[in-house]
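User: Here's a chain of 485 residues. Predict its fold as tokens.
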Amino acid sequence: MKELILLIDSMTNEERLAFYAFAKARNRRSDVKNIKLFQLIENGVTTDLATRLYGDENQNALYALTKRLRDNLIDFTASHGLETESDEEMQLLKNLLASRIFFEKGLHKLGFKILKKAIQKAHKLELYALLNEMYHTLLQHAHKNPSVQLDLVIEEYQSNLKNQLAEAHLMTAYAFIKEDLQTGDQDVEEVIDRHLKPYGIKLNAAFGFKSLYTLMTIAVETATIKSDYYSAAHFMEEAYHIVNTKKDLATRHLYYHIAILKLMSMTYFRNKNFDKAQEFLSLMGSQLKLENGKYMKTMGDDYYHLKALIEIYTGELVNGMKTLSHINHSTPESELTSIMAYFQKEDYAKCSLIMRSLSHSDDFYEKRAGFNWVIKRNIIEILILIERNQPDLVESRMRSFNKRYRKRLIEKKEKRVLSYLKLLRLYYDTPHQVTTDAFYNKVEKSFDWIGADREDIFVMSFYAWLKAKMQSRPLYEVTLELTNL
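Assistant: Prediction complete.
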């Protein structure tokens, strides 16, 4: 059961909706319990499941149902995952299998013809693992074709093995990089270089789109955890430079190309370089239209979320709010952006309304959106309660936040969050002092500012609220002033 819960918890909203359709298409009856069990676990109900489903403690039936649902999810994950694979890659795999069948049937000429073309295309697509299988097949049957230059084939095969080994080394390094960056205060580029060096791996043109995407994802995930996109920027630019040298392969690796463009846009946005963020977002939009918009369903919401964020922070708040309405399947991240947008508009009643839709526990959201998201959600909730003048709830939320997260924030070297909450309490207890020099000096001494160019955009947004109170100015005006320096 624990395995099933973890599997469902790991699914995105889009994947869950797709699974409903998948399961309904497979079920033979309209009233089936596998979907009911999925819905219960999805909503955080993990106790008394047998009673809820069968009306009694029928543990044997529940065990069988759990196994069936797990098998359904595994089948769905495999079939759904194929949607992100390149059509050309899938076709090459089919060609490889077809060539093997032709060899077994004695149709050698046809087998060699198909295999030769498949190898040429796989080379262009940098599909090293698939190429390895193709060379195995070619070497196995080379004696049946006198025109095959065995020395040349072996040379190509060994060269491909080196590329495949480099990919394997990258995955090994990836595991250590992730482990290092999750703990401790370390520079992203330095950690990546340290783990690539033992294998002689450097960022260069030998990396394929998938490998580059893997490394760039590490950098962005770590930057998100640390709220430090500034340190990751140089590495991201170097990695994208390599992507840019492979423009002729971009459409053949469309999924990874779109995903890389999204990472680049997000990196520039979080570093407040809105022009570059928009440039990459526009490229992402044009790529999403290719192949009849096949990836719009899986990545369109990410595009609109990024577009809305850029609009909100470049003075187009209303347009940003309209753009958010184009998101088909909301996520905790996009919901929090909606709250933030209405907060900038100072429509606190609407903020509260959307906040109520985020009804799950902090633990639930931490698994899906991360620790930083949970912290931002708690802070903005306190700010909304302050604005709506609900003293009992403000006191309760502040107390529970400190009790739950104080130790973890100190361990993560995020004492500024705790300093900020102290200032919020001081403001709420004595609002008339917020415009005084004494309060201003207290704010200045409470924060360890790292410079406008390096400071995280969302950290600045929270500070903007406090500064707006100190200067008696509109919140959105102050936010734009701080984030567009």
